[in-house]
Amino acid sequence: MYTLTNKVMKKKVAFISEHASPLATLGGKDSGGQNVYVGELAIQIANKGYEVDIYTRREDHLIDRIVTYADGVRVIHMDAGPALPIAKEEILCYMDDFTQNMILFIEEEQLSYEILHANFWMSGLVAMKIKQKLNIPFVITFHALGHVRKIHQKEQDKFPVERLSIEEEIVQQADLIIAECPQDYDDLIEYYHADPEYISTVACGYNPKEFYPINKTASRKMLNLEAGEKVILQLGRMVPRKGVDNVIKALALMDTSGVKTRLIVVGGEFDDPNKDGEVIRLKQLAKSLNVENLIRFEGRKNRTELKYYYDAADVFITTPWYEPFGITPLEAMACGTPVIGSNVGGIKHTIIDGETGFLVPANQPEILSEQITALLGNESLLQKMSINALIHVKSKYTWKKIAEKMIECYETVMLRQTVISSSMLQPVVAEPIKMHKIKSNLLYTGTGASAQQNYGS
């Protein structure tokens, strides 16, 4: 709880990210943008003087319970079910154990957190119960919404049916909801009846020390790519909703007879792409379309290698059906690579159509093919978009800037907690204090009606 005593001490924040640890190797089915978000945001918040603990589910019995991730940031592993990787669709039944063990750890270590930051709906469930037990306020970044996911994935969505009712309760109990883009903001209001005054829109970011232009010739040499060929890059988790098959279909529609063209696909559960079921499906599709010789499936890569792929590419493609935000377009643009992305979620706000790349409808390979051809055939446009992309992401989307906005959100919640606590200490003269009146009279930075205007600025 936030008290006058804590003001002279380092404030402590507890991140909860039940399935997405910043220590995980990226590119697999359940390892992607959320892992990056949690790790990078925690580091930048710690750089601002906070202490951050990241609570995540133990997936390996050999790993230490507490791992120092960076200065001021610890990863704390909670026992919740078998110490093995388990698909996130199957771990809801272990969240009671996670909650109990987290509360026990906090009490045993005599930790005092000013705020909890839940990531994903199951972490929100944990935060909600801890708030009830320890009176610690919480904010939540959902990263994906069950109602919206159901619309796009229908019967392919394997999460338990309880997800929707749990999310609805979290929306009512959270002290602040972090929308990752204006579309996320609208969806929270439309499908969950969220109070706009309790939503703040804060984008995702990228690390400029990790992603930056190198030298295209050198990067291609390192990756064994020819200097003169046109290189299209698709990079991310290998799951159907990411739309990699859409890119393969677009490639099949392109006239590649004049200029050698190569599609590089990075990501997957394994270093060896031939062990990955989704990659095998995509390879079969490529063979059926007679473009298997134009595609290289690279499998999972270490994060330190990704900048060379971004830098080597002429254009980066990301065309998911549904994407709450999408960090990879920022990373590509930070390396000076224009992006063609589907006009969904956060992507339609991070790409400036016609300036840093193009926006296209999801699942329409004909239109994607036309835009790739237009961009690869216009060297001056490629150069212009490359420069625009760099300027765009540097000005708005570094994790440092994102952390500053997130801290404003935390401070707002902590101030409100202080106001409520002080109000509760006042003697009741007439009628009891009505919580909704306190709630509606508070001022927010970047929330409510102004939230969409402040996105990414």
CATH topology grouping of the largest domain: Rossmann fold
Strand tally:
14
Tally of separate domains = 2
Strand order of the largest sheet: 3-4-2-1-5-6-7-8
**Rg on CA atoms, Å:** 23 Å
Uncertain segments: 1-7, 428-453
- N→C terminal distance: 31 Å
User: What is the mean predicted local confidence, pLDDT?
Assistant: 90
Order of helices and strands: EHEEEHEHEHHEHEHEHEHEHEHEHEHHHH
Estimate what percentage of residues fall within beta strands: 5-15%
Percent range of helical residues = 40-55%
Rough shape? globular
Which structural class best describes the helix and strand composition?
alpha/beta
Could you say what the CATH architecture of the largest domain is?
A: 3-Layer(aba) Sandwich
Describe the main β-sheet briefly.
Answer: 8 strands, mixed
Total helical segments: 16
What is the CATH first-level class name of the largest domain? Alpha Beta
CATH superfamily of the largest domain: Glycogen Phosphorylase B
Describe this structure in words.
This protein is an alpha/beta fold. It folds into 2 domains: 5-205 and 399-450, Glycogen Phosphorylase B (Rossmann fold, 3-Layer(aba) Sandwich); 216-396, 3-Layer(aba) Sandwich (Rossmann fold). Helix content is 41%, strand content 15%. The protein contains 16 helices and 14 strands. The chain has helices at residues 33-47, 95-108, 121-134, 146-153, 162-173, 182-192, 216-222, 244-253, 277-288, 303-312, 328-334, 347-350, 365-376, 379-396, 399-425, 435-441; strands at residues 12-16, 51-57, 66-70, 73-78, 115-119, 138-141, 176-179, 199-201, 230-235, 261-266, 295-299, 315-318, 339-342, 357-360. The strands form 2 sheets. The chain has an 8-stranded mixed beta sheet with strand order 3-4-2-1-5-6-7-8, sandwiched between helices. Strands 11-10-9-12-13-14 form a 6-stranded parallel beta sheet, with helices on both faces. The two termini are 31 Å apart.
